[in-house]
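[[Encoded backbone]]
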Amino acid sequence: MRLQKARIEGYRSIRKPLEFVVEPSVTVIVGPNDHGKSNLLKSLLHLNSSNDFDQDDLNWDSESKSDELPSVVGTVELDSKSKGFLIDIENRARKKINEKINERDSDIEDDELEQEQIVPENATSSPEGGAPATPPQPPAPTTTESDFEDLPEEPLDLLEADHIPDTITLSRIGLFGELEIEGLEEFQDEVQNEFFDYLPRFELIEPITKLSDSVTAEELKGDENEFMRGIFYYAGINPNDATTLFKQNDRTQMQVSQASDVLNETLKQSWSQGQDLQFRLTHDSKEDRIDLQIQDPSVASRYVRASRRSSGFTHYFSLKTILHSRQKDHPANSYILLFDEPGLFLHLSGQYDLLQVLEALSRESQVLYVTHSLFMINKTFPTRHRLIMKSEEGTTINGKPYTGRWQSVLNALGLSLTGSILFANHVLLTEGDSDPIYIYAIVQKAVLAGKVDMEINSLAVMSTSESKNTDTLLRLLLETEPVPKIAVVCDGDKGGKDRIKFISNVLKDKEIPSKTLTTDTSIEDHVPMIKEIYVPAVAAFVVKVLSFLGETPPNEESLKDKLLEDFNDKFDKEDTVVEISKWTNDVAVRIGGLKKKPSKVGIAREYATRLIDIDNREFKFGRRGKALIEWLQKELSIPTTHEVKESIMNE
């Protein structure tokens, strides 16, 4: 089961109703500190039947409404497994009801038959004048009338799969409210009660400050050692009953050795990236501790510690093990994992690794995490992000923070993108300010639509404006350590060719790949779906500009039709469009009514928003756009998402 959306009101800093859509795999909540990110995650914990509200959960300005606030409501999608479970338990309940109906009807028939057999009053003596005959007595009842109360008149039909709802609603309303299920009203009461145990469990994982791979019997009992609790569970030992193992003797040594065998076998079955490692539990008799050691083929001289491995290994292995401990301590059929600032104590490169770890975890469980780090934003999947802010209304949320080159996020975090190029492994330098917007949008949509497989979180695209800026940036990047993969792309006009000529010495000397676009074309001429996305974006931007200036704009739909008509008259095919920027400047003034040419950056942002928002099945790459992105991935050696995950987990 997956959470589709949530609505929260009157919960801590969330005063007004806050509703947001949840992605099927990973949802990222971005925002500054103390703006309600953690409160949002914690509110979802109350969709567990065992997590009641307490007084601190009620928003301070809502204290007079404790009968209806706090309120947490979640829409949950039922998968095929949960639908099958519902059908089974509902039909089982209906069969029991039908059995009672049959029993009731059978008793009624027996009563009617007995009435027919009762001797009339005037037939109380024998014909010969002997003793009166005793009337027949009905058998003692085996059931009572109360057994048949509230039964329907007719037997119930068994439930078919098409009668199962696609979603249900979980809600907890009011300070003393209990968790309720909506959407199963047609099911038997006992079925609804039984389904509570089948609901997904929400688990909150706090930041991992330090990984402990050594523990005492007393430490093992606490939640602060969930990692080692998970290790014990993997080893077939219940950590709640392991006290006697910590005193080293011949018996416990054998038990710990056998547990190590189980640990290795279990991890090899469930973790493909750990196939070459050998795990070993050992006694530290001086302090009555048990340690976890790892034998790594790449380290010949000693055992290694999980706490000293790379960030990718540590986070994947530790999170996987902690979650295993949670699942053993709190069994459920499925889990929704909530991570509060998961990269808080990590170096920037470690945060990048963590993105891939969370991706791997999302294959089995839905993941939501909150962050205030720019480097925990997953640029490969922009639509997963939500921006959370605090205003006079309380905590609010923006469902599309990726529009306008993430400007709303950057403003909220007090950051700019200028420094991000220094942390990139792959850098593309372009000419105009609108070029990075187009390139990011095209790559992101192509990844979402499954047209390319590219991990772009380590990619930086930066405009350089003038030729001398391109030369300066190239030399700056070449002096960094390690030197990133660099490529340069320029327009196909005279300016672009002159730029390549200006930096030709450094390109040749450092073997930096470059590309000049088709003659007289710019990035705009290479974008996918020009008719479907670009031309409507121009119309929308013109209308916005005129409205902002206080002028009466034309109808957007009408303007779009006029621009498309003019476009069709001007150009034969989308794949042969040349100098569409000049055409845009002309029609924005001549048809749209602007007094001067429009902003290229503004149109690019409008295009990027619309491209990301279209259904992935409707996306058409186009010959030029496809060729450009394939060149980009090849020349910058940008890995696939699968390659990145494998490399990080194998570190």
